[in-house]
Amino acid sequence: MQNYKDLEIYQFAPKAQSAKRKAQSAKAITLIEMVAIIAVVGLAIPPLMLMWQDLSYRSARATAISQATFYAQELMEEIKSKDFVDPDDPTNPALGPNGETYPNFDDVDDFNGYSENPISDAPGYNRCVTVDYADLSGSTWTGNCSPPNPADCNPPTCNPEDATDYKRIRVLVSHRFGDSSLVTIVSGF
User: Fold this and answer.
1) 175, 116 in Cβ contact below 8 A?
2) Longest dimension (CA), the chain
3) Burial category of 161 from C-beta neighbours within 10 Å (exposed 0-12, middle 13-18, buried 19 and up)
4) How far apart are alpha carbons 112 and 70 in whole angstroms?
5) At CA 188, angle to CA 185 and CA 189, rounded to 5?
6) Which residue of 82, 113, 125, 150 is surrounded by the most CB atoms within 10 Å?
7) Cα 173 to Cα 116: distance, rounded to the nearest angstrom
8) DSSP string spanning the chain?
9) How far is it, in rounded angstroms, from Cα 121 to Cα 123?
10) How many Å is the Cα radius of gyration of the chain?
């Protein structure tokens, strides 16, 4: 005859093995679950990639505009540090260099028509300058030269009678995302 204790062990052993097998099978992923995961990930990746692409574009654009503004400000500060009129001929109203070349410009209007294509040490950025005489009409500054408000880097044509005590300086920096410009008015007073 068998001992009761032996019978008890014998009866519980198969149950312990089947519970162990169930625990192992619960850890595995079925084929249907794997297909569902692939479908969800496949639907989620394209919108995330588009969002990342847009974020990259906006970041590069903001950086380019910031750098272009820096290059414009850098040249504007250099121009504003010069004399209002030519120290060699203060009565000459003509705009543009009077025989000088950059970096030896000695007054603000010597920079009229000046351009750097590309800016040294900054490939992909071009900058140019226009200078013209300006008057205040109400609350708006208008140019006295032709064209009165140049939109590009072509220097305006000024006649001696267009001369005023104010000069408008415009620095335009072009880059792959567009243009950035700074405009200021300087006075002879």
Assistant:
1) no
2) 134
3) exposed
4) 20
5) 110
6) 125
7) 9
8) ---HHHHHHHHHHHHHHHHHHHHHHHHSPPHHHHHHHHHHHHHHHHHHHHHHHHHHHHHHHHHHHHHHHHHHHHHHHHHHTSBSS-TT-TT----S-SS--TT---BGGGGTT-EESSBTTBTT-EEEEEEEEEEEETTEEEESSBSSS--SSSPPB--GGG--SEEEEEEEEEETTEEEEEEEEEE--
9) 6
10) 37
Q: One-letter amino acid identity for 161?
A: E
Tokens found for residue 35: 């297909």
